[in-house]
Design a protein that fits this description.
Elements: H1 3-32, H2 37-46, H3 51-75, H4 84-98, H5 107-127, H6 129-133, H7 145-160, H8 165-176, H9 181-205, H10 211-234, H11 238-266
Helix pairs in contact: 1-2, 1-3, 1-10, 2-3, 3-9, 3-10, 3-11, 4-7, 4-9, 5-11, 7-8, 7-9, 8-9
Length: about 270
């Protein structure tokens, strides 16, 4: 075999290994906080996908890792099911609607509003740590019309783009519904799974998903999600670390929404 071909094979192998490692980090970060796609989308583009294909293919790893995280949280008894129907129904409908949003939607205006919401969220995470770390109210209020509508809207955004949706869902559950971070995180992972399934189905139907690359990334994401869920349920200071992680990922989400999303939406 010529030396050039050997070098090419080695480079390609290194890229694949890097993709698995990136998937692992993303699965861990997504399960504890959110916005892991800030590194998976660029990695999928390095693998050779265009921005539209990367946005669609990214959902493969999200579905498998969020399913793993949800199952791990449930086995540990950390996933509350009392109000699950009120949470999941608008989330599934929102994810399905978001995957089919028309092209004439004013995407830039939506991004600016979301980035502004992220800035407010970052201020609240930094200035009011107890609101996130403590257990929240004994009986969270998820049946209010505005809460259901907010879950639908956030999930619709997740079905459309997904960048930062985990962080937005955490804010909805903690600040809007009254859950503490330890109770909100497993619910967030379950919502991400449920809203991404119909979105992935729509993108598969449109022929935009590269299943091979999606499964390659997912092999790392599933492991990362499993370890993150175990950490969140076993570590006594998990809430503190999740809040610290949010302080890191929220600024990244703002940058991604304002800049990388534009690339995803406009690249051919």
């Amino acid at each position: 075999m010529p030396d050039g071909e050997v070098i090419q094979i080695l480079i390609q192998t290194a890229v694949y290994v890097c993709a698995v490692l990136v998937g692992f980090v993303a699965g861990f970060v997504n399960t504890l906080a959110g916005n892991g796609s800030v590194i998976t989308l660029p990695m999928l583009m390095v693998l050779g996908l265009n921005a539209h294909e990367a946005n669609a293919t990214n959902r493969v790893g999200v579905v498998l890792s969020s399913f793993t995280g949800t199952a791990t949280f449930r086995r540990a008894g950390a996933l509350e099911t009392k109000h699950l129907g009120w949470i999941l129904v608008p989330s599934v409908l929102g994810g399905l609607a978001g995957a089919q949003l028309p092209d004439h939607l004013d995407k830039r205006a939506m991004e600016i509003v979301l980035a502004g919401a992220m800035v407010v969220m970052l201020i609240l995470v930094v200035a009011k740590p107890n609101r996130w770390i403590k257990g929240g109210t004994a009986e969270p209020n998820v049946r209010r019309f505005r809460t259901v509508l907010l879950l639908f809207a956030v999930s619709a955004y997740g079905g459309f783009i997904q960048a930062g949706v985990g962080v937005l869902l955490l804010a909805t559950l903690v600040l809007g519904c009254g859950y503490g971070l330890a109770r909100a995180n497993p619910l967030k992972v379950a919502i991400v799974f449920m809203l991404t399934v119909p979105a992935l189905a729509v993108y598969c139907w449109a022929g935009q998903v590269n299943l091979a690359y999606g499964l390659l990334m997912a092999s790392g994401q599933v492991t990362g999600a499993w370890l993150a869920a175990r950490f969140a349920t076993r570590h006594p200071q998990a809430n503190v670390w999740v809040r610290r992680l949010l302080i890191v990922v929220i600024p990244l989400a703002i940058v991604k929404i304002l800049f990388l999303n534009d690339l995803v939406l406009t690249a051919g």
